[in-house]
Protein backbone atom coordinates (compact mmCIF):
# COMPACT_ATOMS: atom_id res chain seq x y z
CA UNK A 1 0.00 0.00 0.00
CA UNK A 2 1.45 3.35 -1.08
CA UNK A 3 1.65 5.74 1.87
CA UNK A 4 0.08 9.20 1.88
CA UNK A 5 3.47 10.93 1.84
CA UNK A 6 4.56 9.07 -1.31
CA UNK A 7 1.30 9.99 -3.05
CA UNK A 8 1.81 13.64 -2.12
CA UNK A 9 5.39 13.67 -3.46
CA UNK A 10 4.29 11.92 -6.63
CA UNK A 11 1.54 14.48 -7.25
CA UNK A 12 3.82 17.47 -6.50
CA UNK A 13 6.54 16.09 -8.80
CA UNK A 14 3.97 15.51 -11.56
CA UNK A 15 2.78 19.12 -11.29
CA UNK A 16 6.39 20.30 -11.25
CA UNK A 17 7.03 18.51 -14.55
CA UNK A 18 4.04 20.29 -16.12
CA UNK A 19 4.87 23.70 -14.66
CA UNK A 20 8.58 23.53 -15.58
CA UNK A 21 7.70 22.72 -19.20
CA UNK A 22 5.56 25.86 -19.63
CA UNK A 23 6.89 28.46 -22.05
CA UNK A 24 5.81 31.30 -19.77
CA UNK A 25 4.60 31.64 -16.18
CA UNK A 26 2.58 34.79 -16.87
CA UNK A 27 -1.10 34.55 -15.83
CA UNK A 28 -3.25 32.56 -18.26
CA UNK A 29 -5.80 29.78 -17.93
CA UNK A 30 -3.28 26.91 -17.98
CA UNK A 31 -0.76 28.57 -15.62
CA UNK A 32 -3.53 29.52 -13.18
CA UNK A 33 -4.96 25.99 -13.24
CA UNK A 34 -1.62 24.27 -12.58
CA UNK A 35 -0.64 26.56 -9.70
CA UNK A 36 -4.13 26.26 -8.19
CA UNK A 37 -3.75 22.46 -8.29
CA UNK A 38 -0.31 22.75 -6.68
CA UNK A 39 -1.58 25.00 -3.87
CA UNK A 40 -4.61 22.77 -3.21
CA UNK A 41 -2.28 19.74 -3.07
CA UNK A 42 0.04 21.40 -0.53
CA UNK A 43 -2.48 23.16 1.75
CA UNK A 44 -3.89 20.19 3.76
CA UNK A 45 -1.96 19.64 7.02
CA UNK A 46 0.75 17.04 6.44
CA UNK A 47 3.40 15.51 8.70
CA UNK A 48 5.92 15.53 5.85
CA UNK A 49 9.37 16.92 6.72
CA UNK A 50 10.95 18.29 3.55
CA UNK A 51 14.44 18.11 5.08
CA UNK A 52 14.17 14.29 4.97
CA UNK A 53 13.39 14.07 1.25
CA UNK A 54 15.83 12.36 -1.09
CA UNK A 55 18.26 14.48 -3.12
CA UNK A 56 16.22 14.36 -6.33
CA UNK A 57 13.02 15.55 -4.62
CA UNK A 58 15.02 18.21 -2.71
CA UNK A 59 16.23 19.60 -6.05
CA UNK A 60 12.70 19.52 -7.47
CA UNK A 61 11.44 21.40 -4.38
CA UNK A 62 14.19 24.02 -4.76
CA UNK A 63 13.31 24.58 -8.44
CA UNK A 64 9.60 24.60 -7.66
CA UNK A 65 9.98 27.37 -5.06
CA UNK A 66 11.81 29.47 -7.67
CA UNK A 67 9.05 28.80 -10.24
CA UNK A 68 6.40 29.74 -7.65
CA UNK A 69 8.30 32.96 -6.95
CA UNK A 70 8.53 33.81 -10.64
CA UNK A 71 4.83 33.09 -11.20
CA UNK A 72 3.89 35.14 -8.14
CA UNK A 73 5.93 38.06 -9.48
CA UNK A 74 4.13 37.91 -12.84
CA UNK A 75 0.74 37.66 -11.12
CA UNK A 76 1.41 40.66 -8.88
CA UNK A 77 2.74 42.73 -11.79
CA UNK A 78 -0.33 41.88 -13.86
CA UNK A 79 -2.77 42.95 -11.14
CA UNK A 80 -0.73 45.98 -10.11
CA UNK A 81 -0.87 47.22 -13.72
CA UNK A 82 -4.59 46.46 -13.90
CA UNK A 83 -5.31 48.24 -10.60
CA UNK A 84 -3.33 51.29 -11.72
CA UNK A 85 -5.93 51.79 -14.49
CA UNK A 86 -8.63 52.44 -11.85
CA UNK A 87 -9.30 55.94 -10.49
CA UNK A 88 -9.03 54.56 -6.93
CA UNK A 89 -6.76 51.47 -6.99
CA UNK A 90 -6.83 50.98 -3.19
CA UNK A 91 -10.63 50.68 -3.22
CA UNK A 92 -10.48 47.88 -5.81
CA UNK A 93 -7.86 45.58 -4.30
CA UNK A 94 -10.39 42.77 -4.04
CA UNK A 95 -9.97 42.07 -7.76
CA UNK A 96 -6.70 40.35 -6.79
CA UNK A 97 -7.67 36.67 -6.36
CA UNK A 98 -5.75 36.19 -3.09
CA UNK A 99 -6.65 39.49 -1.45
CA UNK A 100 -8.74 37.80 1.27
CA UNK A 101 -5.67 35.74 2.24
CA UNK A 102 -3.69 38.95 2.73
CA UNK A 103 -6.48 40.36 4.91
CA UNK A 104 -6.29 37.23 7.10
CA UNK A 105 -2.49 37.15 7.16
CA UNK A 106 -2.35 40.86 8.01
CA UNK A 107 -4.75 40.37 10.92
CA UNK A 108 -2.80 37.34 12.11
CA UNK A 109 0.55 39.13 11.98
CA UNK A 110 -0.84 42.26 13.64
CA UNK A 111 -2.34 40.11 16.44
CA UNK A 112 0.98 38.32 16.96
CA UNK A 113 2.88 41.62 16.96
CA UNK A 114 0.59 43.22 19.54
CA UNK A 115 1.17 40.30 21.91
CA UNK A 116 4.87 41.19 22.07
CA UNK A 117 5.20 44.87 21.11
CA UNK A 118 3.91 47.14 23.88
CA UNK A 119 3.52 50.29 21.77
CA UNK A 120 2.42 51.24 18.26
CA UNK A 121 5.52 51.29 16.03
CA UNK A 122 6.15 54.59 14.25
CA UNK A 123 8.30 53.09 11.46
CA UNK A 124 8.13 49.62 9.89
CA UNK A 125 10.31 48.24 7.08
CA UNK A 126 8.99 45.65 4.65
CA UNK A 127 11.75 43.85 2.75
CA UNK A 128 10.67 42.43 -0.60
CA UNK A 129 7.48 44.46 -1.08
CA UNK A 130 7.12 43.86 -4.83
CA UNK A 131 4.78 45.53 -7.34
CA UNK A 132 1.67 44.83 -5.24
CA UNK A 133 2.62 45.61 -1.58
CA UNK A 134 -0.55 44.19 -0.06
CA UNK A 135 0.87 43.43 3.40
CA UNK A 136 1.96 47.04 3.89
CA UNK A 137 -1.33 48.36 2.49
CA UNK A 138 -3.45 46.06 4.69
CA UNK A 139 -1.46 46.84 7.85
CA UNK A 140 -1.38 50.60 7.14
CA UNK A 141 -5.08 50.76 6.27
CA UNK A 142 -6.65 48.37 8.78
CA UNK A 143 -4.32 48.02 11.76
CA UNK A 144 -1.61 50.69 12.01
CA UNK A 145 -3.17 53.98 10.83
CA UNK A 146 -0.37 56.20 12.14
CA UNK A 147 2.67 54.07 11.19
CA UNK A 148 5.00 54.89 8.29
CA UNK A 149 5.96 51.95 6.06
CA UNK A 150 9.32 51.85 4.28
CA UNK A 151 9.12 49.27 1.50
CA UNK A 152 12.32 47.82 0.05
CA UNK A 153 12.65 46.01 -3.27
CA UNK A 154 15.59 45.46 -5.62
CA UNK A 155 13.38 45.96 -8.69
CA UNK A 156 12.83 49.63 -9.60
CA UNK A 157 9.95 48.69 -11.91
CA UNK A 158 8.19 46.88 -9.03
CA UNK A 159 8.60 50.00 -6.90
CA UNK A 160 7.25 52.32 -9.59
CA UNK A 161 4.22 50.02 -10.00
CA UNK A 162 3.68 49.99 -6.24
CA UNK A 163 4.09 53.77 -5.95
CA UNK A 164 1.46 54.25 -8.66
CA UNK A 165 -1.08 52.27 -6.61
CA UNK A 166 -0.85 54.52 -3.54
CA UNK A 167 -0.03 57.87 -5.18
CA UNK A 168 -3.67 58.93 -5.50
CA UNK A 169 -4.55 57.92 -1.93
CA UNK A 170 -4.32 60.97 0.36
CA UNK A 171 -3.25 59.01 3.44
CA UNK A 172 -1.19 56.08 2.12
CA UNK A 173 0.76 58.25 -0.31
CA UNK A 174 2.22 60.03 2.75
CA UNK A 175 2.86 56.92 4.86
CA UNK A 176 4.20 54.45 2.30
CA UNK A 177 7.71 55.04 0.99
CA UNK A 178 9.53 52.89 -1.56
CA UNK A 179 13.28 52.28 -1.73
CA UNK A 180 15.04 50.50 -4.58
CA UNK A 181 17.89 48.67 -2.88
CA UNK A 182 19.35 45.28 -2.04
CA UNK A 183 18.73 44.98 1.70
CA UNK A 184 22.32 43.68 2.08
CA UNK A 185 23.45 47.18 1.05
CA UNK A 186 21.26 48.87 3.68
CA UNK A 187 22.84 49.25 7.12
CA UNK A 188 22.35 52.49 9.08
CA UNK A 189 18.73 52.93 7.96
CA UNK A 190 17.81 49.57 9.52
CA UNK A 191 18.36 51.09 12.99
CA UNK A 192 15.35 53.38 12.41
CA UNK A 193 12.75 50.59 12.32
CA UNK A 194 11.00 49.11 15.32
CA UNK A 195 9.71 46.22 13.18
CA UNK A 196 11.21 44.65 10.06
CA UNK A 197 9.11 42.30 7.90
CA UNK A 198 10.94 39.83 5.67
CA UNK A 199 8.85 38.57 2.73
CA UNK A 200 8.70 34.80 2.18
CA UNK A 201 10.51 34.91 -1.16
CA UNK A 202 13.42 37.15 -0.10
CA UNK A 203 16.27 34.68 0.08
CA UNK A 204 15.06 31.77 -2.05
CA UNK A 205 17.36 29.19 -0.49
CA UNK A 206 18.70 28.56 3.01
CA UNK A 207 22.07 30.24 2.38
CA UNK A 208 20.49 33.35 0.86
CA UNK A 209 17.91 33.64 3.63
CA UNK A 210 20.52 33.19 6.36
CA UNK A 211 22.81 35.81 4.81
CA UNK A 212 19.94 38.33 4.98
CA UNK A 213 18.99 37.32 8.55
CA UNK A 214 22.61 37.71 9.70
CA UNK A 215 22.76 41.15 8.04
CA UNK A 216 19.56 42.21 9.83
CA UNK A 217 20.93 40.89 13.13
CA UNK A 218 24.03 43.02 12.65
CA UNK A 219 22.28 46.28 11.73
CA UNK A 220 18.80 46.29 13.30
CA UNK A 221 18.27 48.19 16.53
CA UNK A 222 18.57 46.08 19.72
CA UNK A 223 15.07 45.16 20.89
CA UNK A 224 13.52 45.62 17.42
CA UNK A 225 11.20 42.91 16.10
CA UNK A 226 11.70 40.74 13.04
CA UNK A 227 8.62 39.20 11.41
CA UNK A 228 9.40 36.38 9.01
CA UNK A 229 7.29 34.12 6.83
CA UNK A 230 8.05 30.45 6.70
CA UNK A 231 6.28 27.26 5.62
CA UNK A 232 5.32 24.01 7.32
CA UNK A 233 4.53 20.49 6.11
CA UNK A 234 3.69 20.19 2.42
CA UNK A 235 3.46 23.99 2.14
CA UNK A 236 7.27 23.92 2.16
CA UNK A 237 7.07 22.88 -1.51
CA UNK A 238 5.78 26.41 -2.20
CA UNK A 239 7.93 28.60 0.06
CA UNK A 240 11.31 28.46 1.83
CA UNK A 241 11.38 27.26 5.45
CA UNK A 242 12.95 29.46 8.13
CA UNK A 243 14.56 27.33 10.82
CA UNK A 244 14.39 29.20 14.18
CA UNK A 245 17.88 27.85 14.91
CA UNK A 246 19.18 30.05 12.07
CA UNK A 247 17.97 33.26 13.74
CA UNK A 248 21.34 34.01 15.32
CA UNK A 249 21.27 37.27 17.26
CA UNK A 250 17.50 37.05 17.74
CA UNK A 251 15.26 35.67 20.48
CA UNK A 252 12.52 33.62 18.83
CA UNK A 253 9.24 34.55 20.51
CA UNK A 254 6.58 32.58 18.61
CA UNK A 255 6.09 30.29 15.63
CA UNK A 256 2.56 30.04 14.18
CA UNK A 257 1.43 27.48 11.62
CA UNK A 258 -2.00 28.35 10.18
CA UNK A 259 -4.07 25.40 9.03
CA UNK A 260 -6.47 27.33 6.79
CA UNK A 261 -5.89 28.87 3.35
CA UNK A 262 -3.26 31.26 4.76
CA UNK A 263 -0.24 29.38 3.46
CA UNK A 264 2.67 31.03 5.26
CA UNK A 265 3.74 30.28 8.80
CA UNK A 266 4.68 33.34 10.83
CA UNK A 267 7.81 33.64 12.98
CA UNK A 268 8.35 36.62 15.28
CA UNK A 269 11.72 37.28 16.87
CA UNK A 270 13.36 40.13 18.78
CA UNK A 271 16.93 41.29 18.33
CA UNK A 272 19.02 40.68 21.44
CA UNK A 273 20.26 43.77 23.25
CA UNK A 274 23.81 42.37 23.09
CA UNK A 275 26.43 43.43 20.56
CA UNK A 276 26.99 40.86 17.83
CA UNK A 277 30.62 40.22 18.81
CA UNK A 278 29.40 38.98 22.20
CA UNK A 279 27.20 36.44 20.44
CA UNK A 280 30.10 35.37 18.27
CA UNK A 281 32.15 34.67 21.39
CA UNK A 282 29.68 32.09 22.61
CA UNK A 283 27.62 34.06 25.13
CA UNK A 284 24.54 33.25 23.11
CA UNK A 285 24.47 29.72 24.49
CA UNK A 286 23.90 31.17 27.95
CA UNK A 287 21.00 33.43 26.98
CA UNK A 288 19.12 31.55 24.28
CA UNK A 289 16.00 29.87 25.65
CA UNK A 290 15.75 26.10 25.40
CA UNK A 291 12.25 26.28 24.03
CA UNK A 292 10.14 28.68 22.08
CA UNK A 293 6.55 27.96 23.01
CA UNK A 294 4.08 30.79 23.02
CA UNK A 295 0.44 29.78 23.41
CA UNK A 296 -2.00 31.40 21.03
CA UNK A 297 -5.35 30.89 22.82
CA UNK A 298 -7.52 31.77 19.83
CA UNK A 299 -7.37 32.09 16.09
CA UNK A 300 -8.40 35.65 15.17
CA UNK A 301 -9.03 34.53 11.61
CA UNK A 302 -11.52 31.71 11.77
CA UNK A 303 -13.68 31.92 14.90
CA UNK A 304 -11.94 29.19 16.82
CA UNK A 305 -10.38 27.00 14.16
CA UNK A 306 -6.99 25.85 15.35
CA UNK A 307 -3.66 27.43 14.57
CA UNK A 308 -1.19 24.65 15.07
CA UNK A 309 1.42 25.82 17.54
CA UNK A 310 4.72 24.03 17.90
CA UNK A 311 7.14 24.16 20.76
CA UNK A 312 10.47 24.64 19.07
CA UNK A 313 13.57 23.11 20.57
CA UNK A 314 16.27 25.68 19.98
CA UNK A 315 19.82 24.54 19.46
CA UNK A 316 22.80 26.65 18.58
CA UNK A 317 24.58 25.10 15.64
Describe the structure using short key phrases:
317 residues, alpha/beta, Rossmann fold, 2 domains, eight-stranded mixed sheet, two-stranded antiparallel ribbon, disordered C terminus, Nicotianamine synthase, S-adenosyl-L-methionine, SAM-dependent_MTases_sf, nicotianamine synthase activity, Nicotian_synth
End-to-end distance: 38 Å
Mean pLDDT: 87
The portion of residues forming beta strands comes to 5-15%
Q: Please compute the radius of gyration using only Cα atoms.
A: 19 Å
The helix fraction, in percent, is: 40-55%
CATH architecture title of the largest domain: 3-Layer(aba) Sandwich
CATH class type of the largest domain: Alpha Beta
Describe the main β-sheet briefly. 8 strands, mixed
Assembly state (oligomeric): single chain
The CATH topology annotation of the largest domain reads as Rossmann fold
Helix and strand pattern: HHHHEHEHHEEHEEEHEEE
Helix count from the secondary structure assignment: 9
- Biggest sheet strand line-up: 3-2-1-4-5-7-6-9
General form:
globular
CATH superfamily annotation of the largest domain: Vaccinia Virus protein VP39
**What count of domains describes the coordinates?**
2
SS-derived structural category: alpha/beta
What are the segments in which pLDDT stays under 50 over at least 5 consecutive residues? 276-317
The overall strand count is: 10
GO molecular function: nicotianamine synthase activity
EC number: 2.5.1.43
InterPro entries: Nicotian_synth, SAM-dependent_MTases_sf
Pfam families: NAS
Amino acid sequence: MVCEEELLIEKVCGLYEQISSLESLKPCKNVDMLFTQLVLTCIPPSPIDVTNLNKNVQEIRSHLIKLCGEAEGHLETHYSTLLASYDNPIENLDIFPYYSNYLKLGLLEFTILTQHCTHVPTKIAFVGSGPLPLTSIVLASNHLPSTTFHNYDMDSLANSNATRLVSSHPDLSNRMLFHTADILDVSNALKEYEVVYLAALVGMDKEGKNRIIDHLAKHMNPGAFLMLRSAHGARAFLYPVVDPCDLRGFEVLSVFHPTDEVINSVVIARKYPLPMHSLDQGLASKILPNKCSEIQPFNPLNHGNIIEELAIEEQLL
